[in-house]
Design brief:
Number of strands: 3
Distance between the termini: 14 Å
Helix content: 25-40%
Number of helices: 3
Structural class: alpha/beta
Order of helices and strands: EHEHEH
Shape: globular
Largest sheet: 3 strands, parallel
Length: 79
């Protein structure tokens, strides 16, 4: 699979309502060379199922230190 030209990294921590709105907007853009990454920062909400429903890649950070948005962004950058 070729590397996409555009990657959108979304740090997620208990924001499922906003995540659905964001992913809907991204999918509406219909950019042909795009990937969306949802990086779950030990959320207690069902972020994984939302990401899968909207065809986004999902990765969950370890639960020992929640609230690390910069680590979530950096992890997404490495993926």
């Amino acid at each position: 699979m070729p590397i996409p030209k555009l990657s959108i990294i979304i740090p997620c921590h208990n924001n499922s309502r906003n995540l659905e709105w964001i992913l809907t907007a991204i999918n509406a853009a219909k950019h042909s060379d795009l990937e969306t990454l949802c990086i779950d920062d030990a959320s207690t909400e069902n972020i994984k199922n939302i990401a899968i429903e909207y065809n986004a890649r999902y990765y969950r950070l370890p639960e020992d230190e929640p609230g690390r948005r910069s680590l979530a962004r950096n992890t997404g950058h490495k993926l």
